[in-house]
Amino acid sequence: MQAERLTPAIGALVSGINLCEPLTPAQCSELSALLVENHVLFFENQPLTPRQHRDLAANFGPLHVHPVYPHDPEVEEIIVLDTNVKNPPDSDTWHTDVPFIECPPMGSLLSARVIPPNGGDTLWSSCIAAYDALDAEYKVLIENLTAEHDLAAAFTDSRYGESAEAREQLATARKNNPPMIHPVVRTHPVSGKRGIYVNQSFTTRIIELAPDKSAEVLQFLTSHVARREFVVQWKWKPYDLAFWDNRLTQHFANADYLPHRRVMHRATILGDKPFR
Ligand SMILES: O=C(O)CCC(=O)C(=O)O
Ligand SMILES: [Fe+2]
């Protein structure tokens, strides 16, 4: 296995491994270490079936079943993101996946199936690099804050409640996933590095601050994370695979390709409870 770093802050292209075959324990540990070091790994030419994709992800932990996104008909752990004119893309805001549960995912594995002729790139940012770049006073200001993350902030009735059936599914998803509070700055459980853990899609407020100040700090931190020096951008080819560390990265999928279709499959690996 070889890893070629792509930017100073984040990202590596990994070659010399076939992810369609079962991994050895040594390969799993090597990939886990590369993930923590590089934050997002890219692999080319990995034509995984949904079952292979699920089994690959399951090497790294138990898998999450998404309460709203549709899944593969046979493999419920594989989300199918089929975006087109009738189902427009909605991942063009900076976010971490599923921060609204007590133990949010440690990682996600995204496989490109159908790619538009151009556009549809995805960007990832390092929340560790973004935190490191804050000045010392700002770090002190946000040190002990906590924030609320809400599924309902991103999965709205207007976008996901078109039919009566969809509205009911959404209501159930909300009931089962009430807003969750996590630290604004979390420590990576493996590297011990600290990073910003609030995002534009799901974070609704900072608990300890008055509404105006909460909005101001969230606006600052969520736009700071997206600065280009913390970001890597990937241009997809069919059967590329991205594996990101969802604990201290955020991502954004460009929504610039309609009327073309784009299809991605995602497996989501559960993680542990964020801590200061
Ligand atoms: O479609 C993409 O490139 C990414 C969508 C997304 O946010 C995800 O799969 O978690
Ligand atoms: Fe995502």
What is the CATH architecture annotation? 4-Layer Sandwich
Helix content: 25-40%
What small molecules accompany the polymer chains? 2-oxoglutaric acid, fe (ii) ion
CATH top level label: Alpha Beta
Number of H- or I-type helical stretches: 8
Q: Which structural category do the helix and sheet elements fall into?
A: alpha+beta
Distance between the termini: 34 Å
Shape designation: globular
- Give the CATH H-level superfamily: Clavaminate synthase-like
Task: Describe this structure as you would to a colleague.
The chain is built from 8 helices and 15 strands. It has a single domain (2-270), classed as Clavaminate synthase-like (Double-stranded beta-helix, 4-Layer Sandwich). The strands form 4 sheets. Strands 1-2-3-13-5-15-4 form a 7-stranded mixed β-sheet, with helices on one face. Strands 12-6-14 form a 3-stranded antiparallel β-sheet. The chain has helices spanning 25-38, 50-58, 127-132, 136-142, 151-154, 157-160, 164-176, 211-225; strands spanning 2-5, 12-15, 40-43, 79-83, 105-114, 122-126, 146-149, 180-183, 185-187, 194-196, 203-206, 231-234, 241-245, 249-253, 262-270. The model has no long low-confidence stretch (mean pLDDT 97). It is 26% helix and 26% strand. The structure holds 2-oxoglutaric acid and fe (ii) ion. 2-oxoglutaric acid (AKG) binds at residues 81, 91, 97, 108, 110, 122, 251, 253, 264, 266.
